[in-house]
Amino acid sequence: MKWLMIVLTAIFVMAKLINVITWSWWLVLIPVWIYLGVYLLVFLVYFIIAMIEDA
């Protein structure tokens, strides 16, 4: 999944810099946000399970 995020982000950034797309930078960086969101979700689920098992 990491390589896909890197490739998509690189393509979107290049397209933005050469004015092929007129998206805002938030949209250009969406693959990074999705990648970070997935890791945050996994961390939160792990944390909640750990808290439940300790109780």
Describe it for me?
By secondary structure, the protein is mostly helical. It has one domain. Helices cover 82% and strands 0% of the residues. The chain contains 3 helices and no strands. The chain has helices at residues 2-17, 25-28, 30-54. α1 runs antiparallel to α3. The longest helix is centred in the C-terminal third of the chain and has 25 residues, at 30-54. The termini are far apart.
Quick overview of this protein structure:
With 55 residues, this protein is mainly α. It has helices spanning 2-17, 25-28, 30-54.
Properties at a glance:
55 residues; mainly alpha; 3 helices
What is the oligomer described by this structure?
single chain
List unreliable stretches of 5+ residues: none
Report, as a whole number of angstroms, the end-to-end distance: 34 Å
The total count of helices amounts to 3
Alpha-carbon Rg, integer: 16 Å
Topology as a string of helices (H) and strands (E):
HHH
Number of strands: 0
Broad shape: elongated
Strand content: under 5%
Structural class: mainly alpha
Domain count: the total is: 1
Can you summarize the main beta sheet?
none
Task: Report the mean per-residue pLDDT as an integer.
Answer: 94
Helix content: over 70%
